[in-house]
Each structure stands twice: as structure tokens, then as C-alpha cells.
Task: inverse folding
């Protein structure tokens, strides 16, 4: 593959052995997928990571009840384009009827390749309403939700966590219940609900389920290096989610695909500062034009901290980016830092930048 060999959407599709392949009822180019990340995986970001090689992307966690009430902000989480497909809609809720009506409303707005129920979020604002990981303590309702989600006719997925010791059901038993109810694929995050995001994710627990249900289990948790993804696949997972690791290394997905034998353009695995700023400008402009200035600045600051390292002036560049007041400030910074041009003058005052310094 030449570095210019991109398809019409601007993405590259490395030909891994055995792909394209149908996993969980969805045809994909590879098994490294973008995880659903609250406040992060909106449309522009999903399209960006498809361009970086993700085989599939997820929406943010979307409230089924919010869709039932046809809330404007909830519906905006669904917006996107064909450039990001295949895309999976992740819903959360506690009542089968709400989930069913929410899914129907979402599908009136746009098409998705699959529907996923979140049974993994451990945060109190979600679990106190009976949603997210709280569903794992209610197998009967969980099974009813999966059956309700099958009615629109799309593949149905679930994202769960491992069961704590002493639970009425083991992780494998819970998976079996969901499969018997109609689930087509299950992601397992290797922590218990009580652990939230602390401690270490258990790959052994995920492997046990992956070996018991071949081709039907995906892995999630603590994937920060290509070797982490390869380990999950070696343990029998059919796919692996790239989550918080992409916020530390923007190019984690293409690097992993290269480790899997994909012919990845070298600039995606050893990106120059110029190429990094080019990509960030493209992403920021897309976000600014579709999701607005606040989102464009938030994502750009996070990307700056993950991208620009290891060359003279990198720290100063990140600091300027952290203090950019408008997208125009950020855009000017990314356009003018090269070729010895001076960084734009920015007044660093607490009153002017009440959110403080991020990164640097």
C-alpha cells in the first residue's frame, strides 16, 4: 500500500488475513474498534478514527429514555455520516419498553449496523437509575432488554463487566443468559462494577468467556499498547475495544493494525509533527463546523497533549494550545508553529481563561 492509497472516504483499509469478516452480524475490515466514550465519540471523532483505521466505531452512551422523550440534545448524539460506518448505537436504560422505543426512535433518525445495550457503566449517576452495571444484578430484566432490542431486526450486542465473586451468576453464566435471549455479541470489560476504573483489568476472566463462546466475545480494558490488543486476540477475543488508550496515543489503532500485519502507511505509525498538526487541524475544523467551538477546543487540547512530544518547542506548543480561548486561536496556533514562525501572542490570565491549564 502506498501512502496515498486511501479510499474515497479518506480512510485506509489494511487487508488483514481473513478479513473482511462478519463479527456479531456486522461486516468489518479488522478487529480493532473504537469504544463508546462519553463526551468523546461524537460524529467527527468517529469519522476521524475510521480514517485512522478503526474497523468499527460506537456512538457515545445514549439515553433510551431521552430518545423516547425526543430530547434535542439526546438526538444530536446520533448524528453522523456514512463516512463513519460501520457504526454501532450504544443505549442505556433500565426498562425494556424504554429501550425498545428508544431504539425505534433512533432508527427513524439514521441507520446503524447494530444496537448495543450498556450493562457496564459503573458510575452512580447511571447505576442509581437501574441502568449500566446495575443491570448485571438483575438478570431477568437484562434478558428482557435483549429480547426487546431484537424487535427492530438489527444485531444486538451487550457490554458488560466481570461478575464479582459471590454473585448469583458467573460471568460466563450471565453471557449464556444474554446469548439465549438473542444477543449476537458481548464485550466484557475486565473489572467488576465495584472496581469502576481502578485496579487492573482481568484478561483471564475475559479469556474464560472467549474460549467458552468462540467468536462471540470482545475484550475491553487497559489497552494502551499494541501488545495489549494482540494479547486479547491471542486469548480468543474476536475483537478488542480501543478506549482511553487513544487519548494517550492518537495513533494507537494504526500501530496495532501494523502489528497485526496490516500494510499501514508509515506516516500513521511514525507521524511527523507536520502530519500531526495537519490531522488535528482537519479534526478540529470538522468538530467546529458540526459540534461547535466548545467541543473543538476540548478535543484539540486533549489531542495536543497526546500528539506533540519529543521535539523542540513541543511543551510551549501544548501550553499555548491549553490556553487558546477560541477555535480561531487554536487554528492559528496549529497553522503557524511550523517553519520557524512565531507562536501567536496569548495573554495568560486566570480571569481570561477560567478553566485553567490543561496538559503541558
Result:
Amino acid at each position: 500500500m502506498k501512502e496515498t492509497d486511501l479510499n474515497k472516504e479518506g480512510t485506509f483499509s489494511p487487508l488483514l488475513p481473513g478479513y473482511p469478516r462478519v463479527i456479531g452480524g456486522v461486516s468489518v475490515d479488522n478487529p480493532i474498534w473504537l469504544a463508546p466514550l462519553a463526551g468523546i465519540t461524537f460524529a467527527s471523532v468517529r469519522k476521524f478514527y475510521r480514517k485512522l483505521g478503526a474497523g468499527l466505531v460506537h456512538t457515545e452512551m445514549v439515553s433510551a429514555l431521552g430518545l423516547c422523550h425526543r430530547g434535542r440534545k439526546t438526538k444530536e448524539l446520533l448524528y453522523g455520516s456514512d463516512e463513519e460506518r460501520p457504526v454501532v448505537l450504544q443505549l442505556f436504560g433500565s426498562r425494556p419498553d424504554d429501550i425498545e422505543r428508544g431504539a425505534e426512535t433512533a432508527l427513524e433518525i439514521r441507520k446503524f449496523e447494530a444496537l448495543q445495550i450498556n450493562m457496564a457503566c459503573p458510575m452512580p449517576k447511571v447505576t442509581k437509575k437501574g441502568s449500566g452495571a446495575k443491570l448485571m444484578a438483575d438478570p431477568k430484566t437484562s434478558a428482557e432488554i435483549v429480547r426487546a432490542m431484537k424487535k427492530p431486526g438489527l444485531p444486538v450486542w451487550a457490554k458488560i463487566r466481570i461478575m464479582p465473586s459471590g454473585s448469583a451468576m458467573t460471568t460466563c453464566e450471565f453471557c449464556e443468559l444474554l446469548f439465549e435471549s438473542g444477543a449476537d455479541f458481548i464485550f466484557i470489560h475486565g473489572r467488576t462494577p465495584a472496581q469502576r476504573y481502578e485496579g487492573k483489568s482481568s484478561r483471564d476472566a475475559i479469556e474464560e468467556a472467549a474460549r467458552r463462546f468462540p467468536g462471540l466475545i470482545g475484550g475491553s480494558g487497559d489497552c494502551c499498547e499494541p501488545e495489549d490488543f494482540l494479547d486479547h486476540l491471542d486469548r480468543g477475543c474476536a475483537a478488542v475495544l480501543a478506549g482511553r488508550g487513544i487519548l494517550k496515543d492518537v495513533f494507537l489503532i494504526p500501530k496495532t493494525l501494523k502489528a497485526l500485519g496490516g500494510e499501514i502507511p508509515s506516516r500513521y505509525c511514525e507521524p511527523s509533527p507536520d502530519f500531526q498538526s495537519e490531522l488535528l487541524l482537519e479534526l478540529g475544523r470538522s468538530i467546529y463546523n458540526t459540534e461547535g467551538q466548545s467541543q473543538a477546543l476540548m478535543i484539540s487540547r486533549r489531542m495536543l497533549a497526546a500528539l506533540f512530544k519529543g521535539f523542540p518547542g513541543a511543551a510551549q506548543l501544548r501550553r499555548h494550545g491549553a490556553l487558546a480561548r477560541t477555535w480561531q486561536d487554536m487554528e492559528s496556533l496549529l497553522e503557524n508553529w511550523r517553519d520557524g514562525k512565531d507562536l501567536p501572542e496569548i495573554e495568560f490570565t486566570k480571569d481570561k481563561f477560567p478553566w485553567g491549564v490543561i496538559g503541558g
In short: Confidence is low (pLDDT under 50) at residues 1-10, 346-360. Residues 273-336 form one domain.
